[in-house]
Amino acid sequence: MRTITLIKGDGIGPEISQAVVDIFKALNAPIEWDIQEAGADVLEKEGTVLPQKVLDSIKKNKVALKAPVTTPIGHGFKSVNVTLRKELDLYVSLRPAYNISGIKTRFDNVDLITVRENTEDLYAGIERKVDDDTMESIKLITRKASTRIAEFAFEYAKNNNRKMVTAVSKANICKLTDGLFLECARKVAEKYPDIKYSEVLVDNLCMQLVQNPTKYDVLLLPNLYGDIVSDLAAGLIGGLGVAQGANIGKDCAVFEAVHGSAPDIKGQNKANPTALLLSSVMMLEYINENELANKLKSAIFKVLEEGKVLTPDLGGTATTTEYTAEIIKNIL
Ligand code: NAI
After folding, report:
1. Which of 84, 132, 242, 285 suits 259 as a labelling partner, its CA being 20 to 30 A distant?
2. Mutation pick for ligand 1 pocket among 240, 244, 280 (CB with most ligand atoms within 8 Å)
């Protein structure tokens, strides 16, 4: 039995987490959940959106599955996600985006992996007020962080039989910062002669992705471009309801859907749990439970392909509970 931290989040978080818990039970997964609370709902009780015990639990268990949490807007509250990434040094955001049979999309054969640097760039939080009319934010890019994310992208490509890594930048304008990011990517690329290396400017990439996304394979990006481009990639394969992700560090990994807490449909039993479920497939692969991962993936794909029991975001009328039950019915 392996213990894994489960953050049920808020908004639709508890509903989609319950779907995962029920399906893992039906799978007889050898996993015990260490349930932890974070987000807007714990703020009142604990005085913080991310209590220390949540971090301690992840540090102890090394792996967590996290449902979305709301970040209260206003001063004094850091995003739970940004804090988790910083505290646990989860320097990789890994987001696969591929077509799923049964989900209508503009393009076929999309199969993209975005590898986004998760700790610096404009997210380093170095901002200051110059005066009432002028604010400043620092775009921090370091050799260390750029090299380790490039190494992750190439190792991922090598281990997953991927053919090409494309480094994304705006180095024509941000000559020093994005220039350093590219310099590090090129240096790492030299160690992987079997994997093609290419470069593209982020604005051009966005245009290319909406015209012909099949041109790309693994995308390597600094934090801000990665944030934007990975959502674009999610849009290419059916939207937020099916977009999976992981935040990975040297010691720990936190698996989560790309979407947020969807307060507009909270408590209505119509949230789509697929994105969190597919993130939990990634989690199973990460802990080498490959057979279980395949079993779960097959059940999800079968239900989506049949298209009879779908949640409203995918054009169906099923509730979260009905969709969950259908997946359980299809576990072989
Ligand atoms: P959102 O992703 O929560 O929702 C955008 C739209 O997509 C909404 O119409 C929502 O109903 C729909 N949607 C999202 N996930 C869905 C699902 N699984 N099934 C069906 N429909 C779904 O983005 P929004 O509204 O910008 O953010 C809401 C809150 O979530 C904010 O407080 C934000 O800070 C937080 N957030 C948290 C994230 C995380 O915990 N990883 C990531 C992104 C946002």
Report:
1. 285
2. 240
